[in-house]
Amino acid sequence: MTIATVTGAAVVDEVAARDPDLISAGGSRTWSVCGRNFVVAITELAAGDRLTEHDLPDEYLLLVQDDAVVGVERAGQPRVAVASPALVVVPAGTSTVYAAAPTTVVQVFTARCDEQMRWAVNHTAAADPRTAPLPEPTETGSDHIRVHRLRDIPTQEGRFGRIFRTASLMVNWFPVQEGPRDTERLTPHSHEDFEQMSVTLAGDYVHHFRVPWTARMSQWRDDEHVQVSSPSMTLIPPTVVHTTRSVCAGPHTLIDVFAPPREDFLTKGWVLNAGDYHGVQP
Known about the structure:
Blueprint (H helix, E strand, L loop, with lengths): L3 E2 L5 E4 L7 E2 L5 E6 L3 E8 L4 E7 L3 E5 L5 E5 L5 E3 L3 E5 L2 E7 L3 E8 L3 H6 L19 E2 L5 E4 L13 E3 L4 E4 L3 E2 L17 E7 L2 E6 L13 E5 L3 E5 L4 E6 L4 E8 L4 H5 L10 E2 L3
Antiparallel strand pairs: 1-2, 2-21, 3-4, 4-5, 5-12, 6-11, 7-10, 7-12, 8-9, 8-11, 10-14, 13-24, 15-16, 16-23, 17-23, 18-21, 18-23, 19-20, 19-22
């Protein structure tokens, strides 16, 4: 499957099956999909190439998935090197990412980043009216690059995944799942007024979708079960019941993206970098 719309207007994009949205002068290839409030970009970053984001109005998230040495630079700050899987919070403004060896990175931007939104393959689609618009942030974080290495995060009973935030974004980077998911322990659910982007970086998955019935039978839809390889991006709209399962042997990596940050995750104390953010002074 390439870019496609399935039940309830979910957008499924197996990036390797289509041409990239952007090819840099250094040979890096980028695929992007946007929701109303965010855009996610997967880049095959060529060795020695540099990805520069200019004058961003918001901080963004950089996900480094392997042990390739990835450098992050921001004007006036020391260069930061990341040599193991990590989530990096990059402040607003102009910054650059580069790699010493070929690797794949994921960037998550807010919808206020106009240039990044324009590169998304679905950027001309109308915003889903069920999705609440992105509010102005009520909290602020540091203006320095912050690196959260996954190896430094211990497993904690009762905590749902590994959740991080910015002032306007939230990401849940799940621990690696070995082999197929137990089909007797799935978690079908829906969201009333926000979208979810599910990004797969390793393994094969099936996304299950169900559209709730309404009083109008003409709106009813059959369930859909969409298998994807990795990497892929799947944008799930509000109200659609969904769950995802790994289906093959070997390691599987799944990341969920939301905007704005989810209050339910914050209230439960699951957000690992919540202490980095403080209320905006009036």
